[in-house]
Design goal:
The protein is built from four helices and four strands. The protein has 181 residues and is of the alpha+beta class.
Length: 181
């Protein structure tokens, strides 16, 4: 009897110890789970903050690029205005202008789609214009458009992300830079 009482106490103690161990295990598992969740949440927050920083950096870079483009376009505008101010009358026809009007129009358009050997491609754009009588006003406008090629070349070198530049005028001239056949 004493032995069975002792066995019952021992079994009750073992059950109590097992219950305590199970409770401790669940508590420990709960704490570990909470720590894992907090760690995951902190990593997620850190990833979002890093993404926000990257987006902000790209936005700032785009803002600077846009400012540079606007500044370069302003330089070209001033250059065009200066050209017209300095040339109230059309200058003597340039080689490129003569090349433009010397070829027969295609579909009513003069195009600078052919360059003689020796003309560097990076120095010229494709000039397209309605074929006209070559009036002084038209010639002045065409010479102005051709004079901007150097500015277009400089713009694409200063801002390498700018792949092409074009100039269009009220006289319906279009200068596309860089030149392409």
């Amino acid at each position: 009897m004493a032995s069975s009482k002792h066995n019952r106490r021992w079994a009750a103690g073992k059950l109590s110890t097992t219950a305590n161990a199970a409770t401790s295990f669940y508590q420990l598992a709960g704490v570990a789970g909470a720590l894992l969740f907090l760690q995951f949440e902190q990593r997620e927050v850190a990833a979002w903050l890093a993404l926000e920083d990257r987006v902000r950096d790209h936005a700032i870079a785009l803002d600077y690029l846009l400012r540079d483009v606007v500044d370069q376009v302003q330089v070209l505008r001033v250059r065009a205005v200066s050209y017209l101010r300095d040339h109230p009358e059309p200058p003597a026809p340039s080689d490129l202008y003569q090349l433009l009007v010397s070829r027969p129009p295609r579909n009513g358009l003069w195009t600078l789609d052919y360059l003689p050997p020796g003309v560097p491609l990076e120095a010229v754009g494709n000039l397209i214009a309605e074929a006209r009588d070559g009036s002084p006003a038209f010639r002045l406008e065409a010479e102005l458009a051709l004079s901007l090629n150097g500015g277009f070349e400089a713009l694409t070198k200063v801002l390498p992300s700018v792949r092409a530049v074009y100039y269009s005028s009220q006289a319906r001239l279009l200068n596309l830079y860089p030149w392409a056949p």
